[in-house]
């Protein structure tokens, strides 16, 4: 199939490379020349395991190219919309400027029979509106909504081998045609019996936002239990293990700690709530406000236990921050709880020295004022306290002997990822969120 992918950010770049890997002829379009230059040279503009190799092989095969000129998509059969839907400035709602602009720019270049496929996460009701826009094109074209569930760090794996495929299609013949086209695109995944749900636009849009709302709720649930555990002397990690054995609950996404961040969960639950309000159904999604609040309170608590461990005040104290990315195996610091805590401690007068295996450069772009170093040992040198805020393997594996360079013997575990007994046995003050 001849495919275009409009928007070459996280979602689009990975999708374009994976579609080429599956044998399709792909053109990726983005307005950002530097992104296009990087992708053309097979450089992934962000850290994602497996993506550079995929870009290199797809570029070499001649099946994948990138451009800033939307007119070059005119011979594609299918156009994926993969542009961002960030949170609006000063509001909770999603900003649909890029989605609207992408579809509008595409209209004059659609060939007869083309299918436009939405991948971006959008408020429910967007696809129906965009379908009208597509119907206004000079040729006969239609729209499908096919949400993407990829996780950063597993983006290539999740795109090539999704755990389900969801097609939101119009009723009747147009829907059957869209389904047949999508089946052809995803032939490899379907041959492995990947579940496929064919539905209407609204359900397809809601599958994506409700999945993210559920995941966020699960994390905030266990973090609320951490608050209770802290007050009562219980251990939230044992609690999670014990309730997780009930397979109606399940242990995954019950890791208590600093909470969720990243480019999806925070903005998606806020946009969902805002959409609920617009629909006059604010009460149905009001709980997401609590989910958000619980999540943000974990950061306050981390700052609080740091203060407590350092005698009530962090002013003038040297603090090593290990981990800045919103989760391990990523260089993404969008809405990162770790970077936020580092900045708050700095604002309270601490000297913060931070490190991360991949996210120093992305953090520096947001906060050039923070001190960055390359390794945990450098960060810990002379530190009064060491904070582990993102659970990278290299931090989980640290031994007390590795951090002998620290001035103090205080280690604070923001992700419940360290062996508490190991650190205590070596004479360190160990504290974490939700464990005695
Ligand atoms: C998420 C969804 O998982 C994915 O399906 C969707 O397409 C995009 O949003 P991602 O943002 O890549 O993916 O990260 P994810 O692995 O879901 O983690 C989100 C956040 O939750 C991270 O900050 C992580 O540290 C935190 N988290 C996750 C917890 O605090 N506890 C857990 O048990 C799991």
Task: Characterize the structure shown.
This protein has helices at 10-21, 33-40, 51-61, 97-106, 126-135, 155-160, 172-185, 187-191, 201-232, 236-244, 265-278, 282-285, 287-309, 337-347, 360-366, 376-380, 393-396, 420-425, and strands spanning 2-6, 25-29, 64-67, 78-81, 115-118, 142-145, 165-168, 196-199, 318-322, 351-355, 371-372, 385-388, 410-413, 429-432. The mean pLDDT is 97. By secondary structure, it is α/β, with parallel strands linked by helices. The strands form three sheets. Strands 3-2-1-4-5-6 form a six-stranded parallel β-sheet, sandwiched between helices. A six-stranded parallel β-sheet has the order 11-10-9-12-13-14. A two-stranded parallel ribbon has the order 7-8. Bound molecules: uridine-5'-diphosphate-xylopyranose. Uridine-5'-diphosphate-xylopyranose (UDX) binds at residues 149-152, 212, 215, 219, 253-255, 257, 259-262, 264-265, 326-327.
Features:
436 residues, alpha/beta, N-(1-d-carboxylethyl)-l-norvaline Dehydrogenase, domain 2, Rossmann fold, 3 domains, six-stranded parallel beta sheet, 18 helices, 14 strands, 44% helix
Order the strands across the largest sheet as they lie in space: 3-2-1-4-5-6
For the CA atoms, what is the radius of gyration?
23 Å
CATH T-level fold name of the largest domain = Rossmann fold
Percent range for β-strand residues: 5-15%
Specify the overall morphology. globular
What is the CATH C-level name of the largest domain? Alpha Beta
DSSP helical segment count:
18
Count of distinct strands: 14
